[in-house]
């Protein structure tokens, strides 16, 4: 009789351990999904829109882009495209939608030329209004949180004085 009681207690103990393990596993999954800025799979949702822009740097409007450290705001993308001729002599085309709380209307990227970085926010009546404290390098990588993901980059093809930006 004692052997069957011990066997029953062993089965109950095993079931309780399995139940505890499954409960902890579901708790961890729920906790990790709440830590991803309400983004699906930890990714930032920025709508995909077709981008196909060609500019000519021989034209007066874009002639300044021949020099490193210069940039242009272009129409296209979700909230615009920022074309940067970086100091490494590379061109970067970046989506202007901030990757932190990208659904906010103020989540727009602007160049802070005094600090050689990109910031999230808007100019209102000539004054800077920060949307979040996120800051990015000219290549789109995150310099300061709360953003965890780099800015979306578009492909850049340079052919003489023509620059083509595509996704």
What is the class of the largest domain in the CATH system? Answer: Mainly Beta
Which architecture of the largest domain does the CATH hierarchy give at level 2?
3-layer Sandwich
Indicate the percent of residues in helices. Answer: 10-25%
CATH topology of the largest domain: Rieske Iron-sulfur Protein
Give the overall shape. globular
Helices and strands, in order, run as HEEEEEEEEEE
Name the poorly predicted regions. 30-42
Strand content: 25-35%
Strand order of the largest sheet: 1-10-9-4-3-2
Give the radius of gyration: 25 Å
Give the CATH H-level superfamily of the largest domain: Rieske [2Fe-2S] iron-sulphur domain
Largest sheet: 6 strands, antiparallel
Q: How many discrete domains?
A: 2
The beta-strand count equals: 10
Mean pLDDT across residues? 84
Distance between the termini: 74 Å
Q: What is the helix tally? A: 1
**Structural class by helix and strand composition:** alpha+beta
């Amino acid at each position: 009789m004692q052997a069957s009681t011990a066997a029953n207690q062993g089965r109950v103990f095993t079931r309780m351990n399995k139940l505890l393990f499954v409960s902890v596993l579901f708790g961890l999954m729920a906790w990790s999904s709440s830590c991803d800025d309400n983004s699906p799979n930890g990714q930032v949702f920025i709508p995909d829109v077709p981008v196909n822009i060609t500019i000519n740097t021989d034209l007066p409007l874009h002639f300044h882009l021949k020099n490193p450290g210069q940039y242009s705001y272009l129409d296209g993308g979700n909230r615009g495209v920022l074309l940067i001729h970086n100091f490494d002599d590379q061109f970067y085309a970046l989506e202007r939608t901030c990757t932190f709380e990208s659904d906010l209307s103020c989540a727009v990227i602007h160049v802070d030329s005094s600090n050689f970085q990109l910031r999230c926010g808007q100019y209102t009546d000539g004054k800077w209004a920060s949307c979040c404290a996120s800051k990015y390098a000219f290549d789109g990588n995150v310099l300061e949180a709360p953003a965890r993901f780099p800015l979306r980059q578009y492909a850049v093809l340079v052919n003489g004085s023509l620059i083509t930006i595509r996704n």
